[in-house]
Structure formats: structure tokens, C-alpha cells
Design a protein that fits this description.
154 residues; mainly beta; 47% strand; globular; disordered N terminus; semaphorin receptor binding; Semap_dom; WD40/YVTN_repeat-like_dom_sf; chemorepellent activity; Sema domain-containing protein
């Protein structure tokens, strides 16, 4: 993760200069921004705009190889995190594109700012295949309503 400073010192840009991370704001509260990106979720302090914590989540090598064999670009064959839903103060659901094989994970809070994976399942119908596609969701108690692109290009 990099911060770029522009000629105006009050303007910051989050990201890096060499790749397309397809950043997506997933959650915002009084103190933190949770941002989904390529192979990672960033927890950013609103006050200092610095990384407090991150959850790294790259696609498995076998999934990336399959994505590349289908003719997708190397840049597209990553896990772009697109969905984050808080179950409660102790757990979160995160879903990503997973190199065109959408996947979700549930994480439980282990310490103040650390989470451990407790569950993994298919994200089909929850997260998009392609990082260029949008998705939306609504959490209502134990139910998650999602809207995303289901048709994938091969």
C-alpha cells in the first residue's frame, strides 16, 4: 500500500502506481475505512489515513493457473475483495472475485485488531466474477441479500 502526495499537501491518494487494485470502500465508521482491493482488505484510520491492519487473501496458485488458461489477463487473475458484511462486533463476512471463481470467508475477531478465518464457502451469486463488475448487498439479521453479475465470460 502506498500513499501519494500531490502538490497540495492536504490531498492524499491511496493506492500504488504499478497495478490496478480496483479499490472499493466496503465499510466506514467514525474511526476507520475498510477498503477491499487486490488480494487484501485494508483497515485505514480516518484520522491519520494510515493502515491500522490488513487481511491478506490471495487466490490459490491452482485457481490463478486455471484463470490464466481461460485467457484472462494476469492482472485480472487475483482475488479482488468486493463484499464485507459485519455479522456482529466479533465477526465479518468477506467475499472476493478469486480469479473468476468467487469465494467468501467468515472471520472471527481474535484480538483487538486481528481476525482469524473460521469458514470458507463459494461466493457464487454473492461476489462478481470480474473485478470490473459491481455488486451490492444488504444484511438483515442472519440473511444476506446480494445482487451481482452471474454470467461469466469464458
Amino acid at each position: 500500500m502506498f500513499l501519494f502526495f500531490f502538490s497540495d499537501p492536504s490531498v492524499l491518494r491511496f493506492g500504488n502506481s504499478s497495478t490496478s487494485d480496483y479499490f472499493k470502500l466496503l465499510d466506514l465508521d467514525d474511526n476507520y475505512l475498510l477498503i477491499g482491493a487486490r488480494d487484501v482488505v485494508y483497515n485505514i484510520s480516518v484520522e491519520t489515513f494510515t493502515e491500522v491492519h490488513s487481511i491478506k487473501w490471495p487466490s490459490k496458485e491452482s485457481v490463478v493457473k486455471e484463470c490464466l488458461m481461460k485467457g484472462k489477463s494476469k492482472d485480472a487473475c487475483h482475488n479482488y475483495v468486493r463484499i464485507l458484511a459485519k455479522d456482529n462486533d466479533q465477526s465479518i463476512l468477506i467475499c472476493g472475485t478469486n480469479a473468476f471463481q468467487p469465494i467468501c470467508r467468515k472471520y472471527e475477531r481474535a484480538k483487538y485488531d486481528e481476525y482469524r478465518q473460521s469458514l470458507e464457502f463459494s461466493g457464487l451469486g454473492i461476489a462478481p466474477y470480474d473485478p470490473n463488475h459491481n455488486s451490492t448487498f444488504l444484511r438483515d439479521g442472519d440473511l444476506l441479500y446480494a445482487g451481482t453479475v452471474l454470467k461469466k465470460k469464458l
